[in-house]
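Annotated sample (chain length 388).
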Amino acid sequence: MAARKDPPIRFDRAEFAGAVADLGVLVPIAVALIVTNGLSATAVLLPAGLLYIAAGLIYRLPVPVQPLKAFGAIAIAQGLGSNEIAAGALLMGGVFVVLGASGLLNRVAKIFPLPIIRGVQLSVGLLFCQLAWKLTTAPPPAFTDHLQPTWWLVGGAVAVTLAGLLLHRLSVALVLVTLTILAVGLGFQRPLLLGPSPIEFPELSFQVFTAAAIALVLPQLPLTFANSCLATADVARTYFGSAGERVQPSRLAMTLGFANLLAGSICGMPVCHGAGGMTAHYSFGSRTGGTPIILGIALLALAIVFGASLASLLASFPLQILAGLLAIAGILHIGLLRDLRHPVHWALAIAVGVTGLLSNLAIALVGALVVWWAAEAFTRRRASSEAG
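Output written by the structure step:
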């Protein structure tokens, strides 16, 4: 039996266009962690860049890398320091390396039916749209030096969203981001310092680990399990068929786990994979591992060459572009629900998605599984009774 060949890796215009499509999640959280929480800009981008390159080489598909969203949002809102963030990243890394190495996630994934997975993806799509709205109506403090009126931010984001949805196959994201980078570079008024920013190592203690586990890790675990592992593997199979079989929940847990061990060791930004990010990359043209390798090299170059000026450079990125890219990814990700056929499946997916957005994804998953398997058991008993 001939060995199956690895999918090719390309570096064409479509891969470059897809590479910039998921910046709407990465940039705002990275900037906030640098400016608000005092993380080193180089340490923030280094784990993300290395994980992107590893993802491209291992999966050979556009598997995305994103900040841990709930983790990052809580850390930013509470103003947690680099030690707590590092401890949380180390805990997340340890948990997912163990889960991945055990192979447990591949077995657990089999008990989650398609409507529940689609519900998780709906929750993520709605979250992206919500983040896009907040970026323009309540911009993060790190961006306040570059603000325009709210109507201008919202209008610009809507225009970017419409253009992206209508022209996403024409590399519009690449054009927008290229023009933005040129504008930011030409308009940057501060001295441009070259070289990496200093990297520090965390000071850890039992109290720091305890605080990180309660405040950061517990809220993030359900989202990472459901979206980074289960939903990302499902989206890979949906978009890429048999080639997507390389993207398994346990392998995703391993790669994100090791990246977080690195992030925690240098007080960097905790990272994960994400189903919404894969939709963003795919929708703008990505089809191979070239996209994550391109983006990973770009992030490493930024971290090492421009790390000392990175906070100001990233904070100059127009919010309209970031919000528009987020909204496009969210809308297209919600479109994954179109393969559901039964009204009950739609109802279950919507219930999971809305509950996950408004309340807690863990509650949504447990409740949906109870309902699904109770209904399955009832159906089997009734069929058995009628057959008897």
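Annotation: The chain has 17 helices and two strands.
Annotation: The CA atoms of residues 184 and 193 lie 15 Å apart.
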